[in-house]
Design goal:
2-enoyl-CoA Hydratase, Chain A, domain 1; OB fold (Dihydrolipoamide Acetyltransferase, E2P)
């Protein structure tokens, strides 16, 4: 055999071995659909392509999420060179709302026993659009569903009913009506069911997967993605925002404390980053900031709690309207809003009251604390001598002679010398 032919044969053997030993890349999405979820899935699909993996397995459990992020995920799944398997698992999980769109975009859609999917009707948070606009939103979502499902050869009418009528389906109903491809008890059961069966991809090509016994490689989130996914929780975002505002508020009222100011800046920057990724209602954010103004006004105007109560109400409403999300899981919960707003309002008003009272009180320490104090001449002042003030003996100077034992009042402090006058001729002391 010629050397060139030997090289070709060896290359083909290596290629076949590498193809047969290609991994299955596995990621777990157990959260709401938001920008970090979209980034995580996109990077996983890119990694699978670069590694020439046989398939990507996405284990899904989600209540839904944001439309923009869902669209990004669908586009990435459809365009993926590596076949994508989406598996709703474990039992008790769901692929609701946006989750159904993502499930239907997969090359293989599967569910575990005891799971469900559907309820994909578009909704709005505050206020209902007019009938024409709502119809447009609904038609757009239905058209997107039809375009994805038809290419995958699944039940178009049933998928559209989940959008228009908010219908939901158990795993067996979805399988019987061809909304999904398989029901499997675990991933190996799923791999066995789809093994050696031709799989039609979105671009019309056909592939055959042989996954039983193949290595399954986990692809976890990066540390950055985990941190961002955590702070993108609206409840966590609101708590971070409130703590940051309170720390800065404390720093402004106690300049030089440093630690509260540092913590406040860090927390507010984290909140700003999260708000950049979430659909934030900035009118609601303004309500939260105005609430702090009302807390400060309470301490200054002494409204007997009226301004504090108004601030708590305003802050709670601002929290509830802060994130404009189509699903309850992506909004600030009522209990969180109340649990943060009420204590924060009371603490802020209390701290502001202490600061204002401290500023109004007469200074009683240091050099300024001596001014206006009454002392006793220990020696004759003619014009200088010794006086006893505040339990201490001071050098003193008087514009008139004062006999020993006479009472004096302190007018000024010049270094370590007191300027005093006799009490008998002293003008009234201003507090």
């Amino acid at each position: 055999m010629k050397p060139s032919r030997i090289v070709v044969v060896v290359a083909l053997i290596l290629l076949l071995v590498s193809a047969s030993s290609a991994d299955v890349l596995k990621i777990v999405v157990n959260d709401r659909i938001h920008p970090v979820t979209a980034e995580y899935i996109a990077r996983a699909l890119d990694a699978a392509d670069a590694n020439h993996d046989q398939a990507v397995l996405i284990e899904l459990n989600t209540p839904g999420g944001f439309l923009d992020s869902t669209d990004e995920i669908i586009k990435k799944v459809i365009a993926s060179p590596v076949p994508v398997i989406i598996y709703v698992t474990p039992s008790g999980s769901r692929a609701a709302s946006a989750g159904l769109f993502i499930l239907e975009s997969a090359d293989v859609a599967a569910m575990a026993p005891g799971t469900h999917t559907g309820a994909a009707h578009p909704v709005t948070l505050f206020g209902k659009p007019d009938d024409v606009m709502m119809k447009k939103i609904e038609n757009d979502a239905a058209a997107q569903m039809r375009s994805v499902v038809s290419k995958r050869g699944r039940n178009i009418e049933l998928a559209e009913s989940a959008v228009r009528e908010s219908k939901s389906f158990t795993e067996q109903e979805a399988l019987d009506k061809k909304l999904i491809d398989y029901v499997a008890s675990d991933e190996q059961d799923l791999f066995r069911q789809l093994s050696a069966k031709p799989l039609k991809r979105f671009n019309g090509t056909t592939v055959t997967l042989n996954l039983p016994g193949q290595p399954v490689r986990d692809y976890p989130m990066t540390l950055k993605q985990r941190i961002l996914a955590y702070i993108l929780d609206p409840d966590i975002l609101y708590i971070i925002l409130a703590i940051g505002a309170l720390c800065l508020y404390f720093e402004f009222n106690h300049p030089g404390a440093v630690v509260p100011g540092t913590i406040g800046v860090i927390f507010l920057l984290l909140a700003a980053f999260a708000m950049h990724l979430l659909p934030i209602r900035y009118a609601a954010l303004a309500m939260i900031l105005v609430a702090f103004g009302l807390f400060a006004a309470e301490a200054k105007l002494a409204s007997h709690g009226v301004l504090t109560t108004g601030g708590i109400v305003l802050m709670t409403l601002g929290a509830l309207m802060l994130v404009d999300s189509p699903i309850p899981e992506m909004r600030v919960h009522v209990l969180t809003a109340l649990a943060v707003s009420i204590p924060l309002g009371l603490i802020t008003a209390f701290l502001m009251g202490i600061a204002l009272r401290a500023r109004r009180n007469k200074i009683t320490t240091g050099e300024q604390g001596l001014i206006g104090e009454i002392g006793l001449a220990q020696t004759a002042l003619s014009p200088s001598g010794k006086v006893f003030v505040h339990g201490e003996l001071w050098d003193a100077v008087s514009p008139v002679n004062i006999p020993a034992g006479g009472q004096v009042v302190v007018r000024r402090v010049e270094g370590l010398v007191l300027r005093v006058e006799p009490v008998a001729v002293a003008s009234p002391v201003m507090a």
